[in-house]
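ARCHIVE CARD
CATEGORY: sequence design from structure
SOURCE FIELD: tokenized fold
FIELD CONTENT:
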């Protein structure tokens, strides 16, 4: 048997799983360019040399308090590595821990519990800082309407804080092009009406595309209106290690980060594959996030191919206030974009932690669910009796073509 090892269960073990294939099949591992992890010295250097802004310590000198707006566990950002540097900068500028809040930028996701916060922030920071989950329905301040018609409701704790620091990561995104930058504000700490309008009315440019992206432009206008002062964004490698840190202006620093992301995540995508396996690590905490792996299958699969979404889904289906059944932007899956894009391709999901009912809330009725890789392989061998071409994307959500 041909064996391919893929990373598995981001935040819930970060282990490896071996996928096996018949020897006669031609199996191609479509891996990203990737990068080595940064040393502590290089991480610190990024804070000393911000992009397009003064140092955080200098920004803090004229402020009485600060808020750290941190992405949640659906994102692989290792914020615990970054917070000691941020707190050191704030202290040098005269803002101590008692005057520093953390607001978790949960957007329309579930609140973070203590175990989540320990994973994301680290026990030391959690013991020192006042931490809040964002609530998209309450505790909001209205800041008017964006030029593209988005009503702007922002978390009050963020609005009231004098120094606003966004902490997140730069990962490919189908609407905004990439995460990071102003996305920590919209959708991160925005009201449900703000998120709904931005998601529904303003078209993005596609996976990994920043240029001429109206969705990204709306996000950045709202972030500016909210007063986002500075970002601390990372680019990660395939092992969820920090490959780059970008500190500074939320547009200029973000764009420099995107340059590195395009190199690190770049993948030579094989075409016309009979079977395409997309592993959802490191966005594999839940089924709502795992869908971001499917871009690779759409580019790599033949018209009649089998696409296999392999995902730990440690939290099962997950939670998304906008897109789950009953949410404002939920669409019956047989009328949704995924059904149209799949066309004649089969879609299989391999996960031990979701049910058929979970799958059918957001995936077409033809989607098949397998609880183990062995079960999926057995079924594949009943369909494909001869030599076929198979592509495996080991960390598909953070890969780009």
């Amino acid at each position: 048997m041909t064996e391919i090892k893929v990373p598995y269960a981001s935040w819930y073990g970060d282990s490896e799983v071996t996928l096996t294939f018949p020897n006669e099949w031609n199996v191609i591992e479509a891996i990203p360019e990737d990068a080595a992890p940064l040393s502590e010295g290089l991480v610190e250097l990024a804070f000393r040399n911000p992009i397009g802004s003064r140092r955080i310590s200098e920004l803090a000198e004229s402020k009485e308090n600060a808020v750290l707006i941190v992405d949640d566990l659906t994102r692989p950002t290792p914020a615990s590595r970054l917070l000691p540097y941020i707190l050191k900068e704030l202290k040098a500028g005269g803002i101590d821990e008692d005057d520093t809040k953390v607001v978790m930028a949960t957007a329309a996701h579930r609140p973070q519990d203590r175990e989540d916060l320990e994973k994301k922030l680290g026990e030391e920071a959690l013991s020192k800082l006042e931490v809040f989950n964002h609530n998209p329905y309450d505790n909001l301040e209205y800041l008017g309407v964006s030029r593209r018609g988005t009503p702007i409701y922002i978390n009050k704790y963020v609005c009231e804080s004098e120094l606003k620091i966004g902490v997140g990561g730069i990962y490919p995104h189908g609407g905004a092009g990439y995460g990071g930058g102003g996305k920590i504000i919209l959708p991160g700490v925005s009201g449900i009406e703000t998120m709904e309008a931005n998601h529904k009315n303003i078209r993005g440019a596609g996976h990994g595309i920043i240029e001429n992206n109206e969705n990204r432009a709306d996000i950045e206008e709202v972030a500016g209106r909210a007063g986002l002062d500075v970002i601390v964004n990372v680019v990660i490698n395939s092992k969820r290690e920090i490959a780059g840190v970008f500190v500074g202006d939320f547009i200029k620093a973000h764009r420099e980060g995107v340059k590195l992301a395009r190199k690190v995540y770049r993948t030579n995508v094989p075409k016309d594959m009979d079977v395409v396996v997309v592993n959802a690590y490191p966005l594999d905490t839940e089924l709502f996030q795992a869908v971001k792996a499917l871009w690779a299958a759409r580019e790599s699969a033949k018209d009649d191919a089998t696409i296999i979404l392999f995902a730990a889904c440690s939290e099962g289906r997950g939670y998304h206030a906008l897109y789950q059944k009953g949410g404002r932007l939920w669409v019956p899956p047989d009328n949704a974009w995924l059904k149209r894009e799949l066309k004649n391709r089969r879609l299989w999901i391999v996960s031990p932690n979701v049910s058929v009912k979970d799958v059918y809330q957001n995936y077409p009725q033809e989607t098949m669910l397998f609880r183990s890789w062995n079960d999926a392989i057995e079924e594949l061998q009943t369909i494909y009796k001869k030599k076929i071409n198979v592509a495996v994307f080991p960390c598909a959500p953070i890969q780009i073509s």
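CARD ANNOTATION: The chain has a mean pLDDT of 97. The chain is about 30% helix and 25% strand.
SHELF: design records, drawer C
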